[in-house]
Amino acid sequence: MMAKLRPRARLIRTIGDKLISGPEAAIIELVKNSYDAEASYAKIKIFPPRNGKPGEIHITDDGHGMTRDVILGHWLEPANDTKTKRAHSLSGKRKVLGAKGVGRFAAASLGRFLTLESVADTKGEKEKNRIDLDWQIFEEVKYLDEIDLDITTSTCDESTDNGVLIVIKEFLTDWTEERVKSLIQELKKLASPIHADDKFNIVLDLSEFLECNEPPYNFDGISVLEEFNQLSENSFDGEDNEDVSIIKPFSIRKEADYLLEGKFDNHGAFSGYFTILRGDRKKSEIEIPAFKLSSEELHCGKVDVELRIFDLESQSVEKLFERMGVNFAKIGLRKAREIISKNAGIGIYRNGFRIRPYGDPDQDWLKLEKRRVQKPSVRIGHGQVSGFINVGSEEESKLIERSSREGLENNGAFLRLNNLLEKLLLTIEPKRFDFRAKAGIGRKPKPSIDKARSIASLEEISSAIQSLTPEQQKPILLKIEKESKALTKSLDEIEEYQKLLESRAALGLVVGQVIHDGRSYLVPLESHSKSIIEHAPFLLDDSKKGDLVREYYPTYGAGIKTAVDGLKSLFKSLDPISGRKRGRPMNFYAKEVFDDVLNLLSDELISNNVNVDLCLDEKVMLYGYKQDLQSSLLNILHNAIYWISSVENEGGFIFIDSFYEGDSVAFLIKNNGPEIDKDDVETIFDAGFTLKSNGHGLGLSIAKEACINSKGDLILLERLPLTTFKITFPRSKEVV
Length: 736
What we know:
Elements: H1 11-15, H2 23-36, E1 41-47, E2 56-61, H3 68-75, H4 82-85, E3 111-122, E4 125-134, H5 137-140, E5 151-156, E6 163-171, H6 177-188, E7 201-205, H7 221-229, E8 258-264, E9 270-276, E10 283-288, E11 303-309, H8 314-323, H9 328-343, E12 345-350, E13 353-354, H10 368-372, E14 385-391, H11 394-397, H12 412-439, H13 449-456, H14 459-464, H15 470-535, H16 544-574, E15 586-589, H17 590-600, H18 602-607, E16 610-614, E17 621-624, H19 626-644, E18 652-661, E19 664-671, H20 699-709, E20 713-717, E21 723-730
Parallel strand pairs: 1-7, 12-14, 16-18
Antiparallel strand pairs: 1-2, 2-6, 3-4, 3-6, 4-5, 8-9, 8-11, 9-10, 11-14, 12-13, 15-17, 18-19, 19-21, 20-21
């Protein structure tokens, strides 16, 4: 005699609500079903208990609906494999999200009773079906085949819209304010802002939650939704969002401090870009070859990556929101950090929808905080990154979703995904660290002599004795004046000594930077020259080895030329501060130097569509070293062209003007590139400071030193509508 398995009725509750993590996850499963049914929306409306009536949840969509045959042959079949066999929706426009055939049974965790009403097209007419479920019956009856479910079928008017209405009654969970907020957060993180296939709105109607309700439902649901919308980027970007019930994904995608984007291929090789958004926004190419699979790993298929990384210092947060076009003073630092925090987390998405719980603010699945403990200044923490990881189907990626709808199985493919992402972070973290160091981010502010001068005036002490009689005040004020003068004189001496130390320190930094950058050019010189010598014997071989050598020989030459050009550029920029004997200073015409410099930069100006307006009298004569002015101008104008090209505008321009200032001539060099941040003004001339992705940080430091060498100066003028540098250079005493 053959035996058969006979499923118990309680199996439905086991695979449904017993496995689900909570009511939020259950609602998400029903929303996904609406998406698979090709609906343009899924609307959730929660009715709190009122006047003795039990609470209800209504979930509505305008999808293709279900016929009686579909309900009987699919909806009422646990673990139905229809979606497994069919990867796309009926029209083929969407990749289906469900595959295990158990998601709908999670509704049992929401309430005791469920009513499903569906309108669908069948055989040229509209068919309406209704089924009522009491989930308790699956606990009371012993076997599944003993349960009879009543389904009613009728025809309806052709004008009736297709779709599904699910009504859930008698809550099993109290929808408190915290629970509702949790639901909003889950829904906001459900759909990826960048990978959704097409338009699908999720609507959450909380209008029945009023402060006059009985506890715990006595709160303003619409206000709660509005509060969450304020934490989404769309509330800043001018998007029309009058209907607060439409759920918008959490996203500050348009701005961050750093952007990492690209993709892994089937073997694990990465190709993409790293962009410093708070710097020059130039894309730096990232190529990482695939590393060998370990014995525990499986290939995880193609993976798309987009990670937005943030600096969390107060000044960095303020700059971030200024770039977003937000009035930072209005929202404040606490709210700004809250917005970043709500966006924190790296979500894993498939077919445009998130796999829970990856991407939750408290779900550090890559263990970023643990790895950051060893090198907090270098490593990127969980709270500093918001990202999207898009993976392929289960079949393609071997990344299998758990039946509980809570994450992926911890198999070899998931281990491979973790290792690939860690390798990627290890590649870009030094780039971020290097930029932060050169840009002075997180650096302590310099001590201010001006502040000390203010204290040295002893104004507070002078004010404090105003209550004394004039006779009593006189000796004290004389003493204060004497001490104040002595303090001021000491500060003058300290300031002079500080300038001397800063000059020497700047030279030391320049030398350090030259050594650092020089080594970076010597490495490829050494590598490519070795390759040329080693492979020379095979250059004329008629073999595969010979073919390969001939193929790669041009790349060796190109690599050497790039390194040589870099060294030439580096040494040329150092010429003005080299200290070598340059002869005596001489008289020269300023315009000749400006014309020469603009001629040298002509190709660069044309290729970047930058116009120069030079308003300079040909008779302006200077006294000093011609090459000092030339070096300073080259650095300033090259910088201006670079930054003008880093932003979108109708046309870049540089305006150069001059005027006499005592025994000097002042040259104003203005450009319409991005404004220099007020926090960078004091450090912009420091050796090593740069906001460029691959900059030396020497240009402006050398430009200033060059001017000083000829008894002039270079400063940045603040609070002007255009970025303006001012060069002062000694006038010639010769009469023209």
